[in-house]
Design brief:
By secondary structure, the protein is α/β, with parallel strands linked by helices. The chain has two domains: about 220 residues, 2-enoyl-CoA Hydratase, Chain A, domain 1 (Alpha-Beta Complex); about 45 residues, Lyase 2-enoyl-coa Hydratase, Chain  A, domain 2 (Orthogonal Bundle), CATH 1.10.12. Helices cover about 45% and strands about 15% of the residues. The protein is built from nine helices and nine strands. Strands 1-2-3-4-6-9 form a six-stranded mixed beta sheet, sandwiched between helices. α2 packs across α3. The longest helix has 27 residues. The chain binds acetoacetyl-coenzyme A (CAA). Acetoacetyl-coenzyme A binds next to β5.
């Protein structure tokens, strides 16, 4: 994916971030996004997700790692339930606007949900490695946000819950595919259709967490992971993530061909670098 396509434009202002319940800190190759609405247990709104998409579109080109965490002792209580009230949240469009009286059209609602999904989709970009650092609850949209990341590091108090079916809804913020990819359709069915809480150690056993550590160890564990990720060549990391993302959908032969092509790209780039070094 062309990096230049993502670092054009103006980053969200502090005011836009604050209204979206987000904080952003960029330090060289590492961007840290914090979901920050502690008074609402870090519940998120449509604005949170459109602003997340905005962050993704305007990240500086040298950012390689994105870490997402929640403020305080919780990752996120999911969607702000006020989004389902006719009033919405803080003047923001309610998801149910026009549904009761039939004035909402399905195409408009689909476009709106697609705009929210953009806040989750960019986290799969091959030129980034995205890490969810999860303390406490990650419920509904919070769980889906963690699932959108490449890697999940959980504190041992973490609890993951796909609450949507219990509320009469489906998980629609791009979380169903990674969930099935990781745990398989049968376990995913059980987790979603019971809407039960999956604790940190079970999450580790199911592959939903790469690492589980004590609460106090979470920041250090994330920092160690970042250092490890920064130790590899960026272009090779990008090409490798791209290959890994295609593996499930490819046949063995298609994947072998993709590996050859990617390696030729790498060898050509390395040879050009070596030749440039000799000149
Ligand atoms: N939306 C809005 N406000 C929320 C909220 C949410 N999702 N979750 C918590 N809050 C608010 C509470 O209303 C409460 O506000 P007041 O102080 O004004 O009463 C405050 O945050 C603290 O909440 P609790 O006292 O409940 O905190 P707790 O620590 O005892 O429990 C919790 C934390 C387990 C997260 C519990 O608050 C909870 O279950 N929240 C609702 C979770 C939920 O159903 N989320 C929606 C999932 S579905 C989804 O995300 C996607 C989708 O539908 C498409």
């Amino acid at each position: 994916m062309a990096q230049a396509a993502h670092d054009a434009g103006t980053a969200p202002t502090e005011e836009q971030l604050s209204r979206a319940g987000l904080r952003l800190a960029v330090d060289g190759p590492v961007a840290r996004i914090t979901i920050s609405r502690p008074e609402r247990r870090n519940a998120m709104t449509g604005r949170t997700w459109t602003t997340l998409a905005h962050i993704g579109q305007t990240l500086p080109g040298d950012v390689r790692i994105v870490v997402i965490a929640g403020e305080g002792d919780i990752f996120s209580a999911g969607i702000d339930l006020g989004m389902f009230t006719p009033e919405g949240v803080d003047g923001e469009r309610s998801i149910v606007t026009g549904l009761a009286d039939g004035s909402a059209d399905a195409a408009g609602l689909e476009e709106y949900i697609a705009s929210l999904q953009e806040g989750f989709l960019w986290l799969r970009r091959p030129d980034l490695v995205t890490v969810a650092a999860v303390r406490g609850h990650a419920i509904g949209a919070g769980f889906q946000l963690a699932l959108s990341c490449d890697l999940r590091v959980l504190a041992d108090d973490a609890s993951l819950c796909m609450k949507e079916p219990a509320l009469g809804l489906v998980p629609d913020l791009t979380g169903t595919k990674p969930l099935v990819d990781i745990v398989g359709v049968h376990r995913a069915t059980e987790i979603c259709l019971t809407a039960r809480r999956v604790g940190a150690h079970e999450a580790r056993e199911l592959g939903l967490a790469e690492l589980v550590v004590g609460v106090d160890e979470l920041p250090g564990a994330v920092d160690d992971l970042i250092q490890g990720l920064l130790a590899t060549d960026r272009d090779a990391a990008t090409a490798t993530k791209d290959l890994l993302q295609r593996a499930t959908g490819n046949t063995l032969e298609q994947q072998a061909e993709a590996e050859r092509r990617a390696q030729i790209g790498r060898l050509t780039a390395l040879a050009a670098g070596t030749a440039a070094g000799r000149r």
